[in-house]
Amino acid sequence: MMAISHSLDRTLGIVLNKRPFKESGFLVELFTREYGRIPLLARGRSNPKKPLNFLELFTTSDWHLKVGQSFHFIESVDLVTQRLLSGKAIWTAYYLNELLLKLLPQHQEAPALFEYYQLALEALLESEQSDLDITPFLRQFELQLLRELGVLPDLTEDYEGRKVIAGRRYYLSFEEGLLPISLPGTFPIVGELILKILAQAPLSKIESVEYRNMMRYLFEPLLEGKPLQSRIWMQKLYGKGR
Q1: Virtual torsion, Cα 177, 181, 183, 188, nearest 10 deg
Q2: DSSP codes joined into one string, the chain
Q3: What's the pTM?
Q4: What is the CATH number of domain 88-239?
Q5: For the chain, what are the domain ranges?
Q6: pLDDT 10s per residue in the chain (242 long)?
Q7: What pLDDT sits at residue 16?
Q8: Which residue in 37, 57, 54 sits closest to 100, CA to CA?
Q9: What are the alphabetically sorted keywords of the record (predicted)?
Q10: CATH class belonging to 10-82
Q11: How far apart are CA 141 and CA 116, in angstroms?
């Protein structure tokens, strides 16, 4: 947890969400490398002569923040990288933001997750100009988020402490990990795919779909069965979700 002080050291941060506040401000959810997700009150509205580019979603800036009772305030900020996403890429980025806003508690430090988030955004930006497959970046982000939340089952061994075997079939339980038999509420998965996931090895199309379905299984209880709005819109616009 973050130690509350009058001011914070400079940190990289990315805007997850913002909404207008009164006549001349924004309430902002900022994901920072050193301090996790924090609430921010930004004063001043954008105008053509002085645009507030650092408040655009998916933009990385270098922030110097002051701690208030309910919100943090900007002492200074320098724009680092602005990412102007569109199409499928922006809806996929909304998906990442929605997971962070719904699941990551405020002030929980998660520097590794921040780096995976940045990598995913960079991959999405590149994918708009190339045929880069962004799926591995999404899965790595999801896996790290589960790890940060302390709910990622042990995928290195089964419930009896035996190492995963490639040719064996397992049944993944959100609460108990890898089981040898099918029980209600478990997800079937082969050992070969588990080992590839752990090694971050290339996956076939079928394996990639199975990996995606496994992650959805693990996130479902955290989301309490409620659908993500970003996924709903992806399905409406493009016929499928990430």
Answers
A1: 70
A2: -PPP-SB---EEEEEEEEEE-SSSEEEEEEEETTTEEEEEEEES--BTTB--GGGSTT-EEEEEEEE-SSSEEEEEEEEEE-----HHHHHHHHHHHHHHHHHSPBT---HHHHHHHHHHHHHHHHHTTS----HHHHHHHHHHHHHHHT-PPP-SB-TTSPBP-TT-EEEEETTTEEESS--TT-EEEEHHHHHHHHHT----HHHHHHHHHHHHHHHTTTTTTPPPHHHHHHHHHHS---
A3: 0.90
A4: 1.20.1440.120
A5: 10-82, 88-239
A6: 444 446 788 999 999 999 988 777 889 999 999 999 999 998 766 555 566 788 999 999 999 999 887 889 999 999 999 999 999 999 999 999 999 999 999 999 999 999 999 999 999 999 999 999 999 999 999 999 999 999 999 999 999 999 999 999 999 999 999 999 888 999 999 999 999 999 999 999 999 999 999 999 999 999 998 999 998 988 888 876 56
A7: 97
A8: 37
A9: DNA damage, DNA recombination, DNA repair
A10: mainly beta
A11: 5
